[in-house]
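Students often ask why we bother predicting the structure of a whole assembly rather than each chain alone. The short answer is interfaces. A chain on its own may look different once its partners are present, and contacts between molecules only exist in the joint model. In this exercise we take two input lines together and write out one structure for the complete complex. Read the inputs first and try to guess which parts will touch.
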Amino acid sequence: AQSVTQPDIHITVSEGASLELRCNYSYGATPYLFWYVQSPGQGLQLLLKYFSGDTLVQGIKGFEAEFKRSQSSFNLRKPSVHWSDAAEYFCAVGASGSARQLTFGSGTQLTVLP
Amino acid sequence: DADVTQTPRNRITKTGKRIMLECSQTKGHDRMYWYRQDPGLGLRLIYYSFDVKDINKGEISDGYSVSRQAQAKFSLSLESAIPNQTALYFCATSDAQGLTDTQYFGPGTRLTVL
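Now the answer. The structure tokens for the assembled complex follow.
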């Protein structure tokens, strides 16, 4: 069975500072990895995804993530955080084959200080 | 217009009542999903449907039922609501592409069971 761990429940950064959100996964085959963002009162928006190929993936809103197979990680990064980035961030792993279900981590709440 | 819509957006009901949450999509996707979100637990899959004639249980289907009325419509029912079903409910859709799918989420329905 697949699983996702987001070790940081809550992270606070200052506006303009860099950001890294951690995600570790467990999956027996090639993982398909996603980062979603949930702004207050909103649904989940896809930031980026990794299926194969280049392990550094670029997404929307200036985010990127790096897949590291040896560390079973898919950390999300942004070089300079904006106040509008305050939200909850979810990492997810997708299954291949007939099921194709997503398993989500518990989320990381990001607070941005002015 | 939003691609995935959910109605109602908020609902307060009493224990024992029957509740239906509705999801409609204009993305033309075959696959639809229902998740619930609880604080600190991320999103958990309730049911999913790969086409009108295909319904599958997810991780936490007990106490819920679904109906896929058409390709674009997928409803979630709570036959007899109980307080621990208080949560944020999300509908999602995906299109079968390659080895796994990218899921797109609706805005959510906040359900409170008193």
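Check your guess against this: The longest strand of chain A covers residues 87-94.
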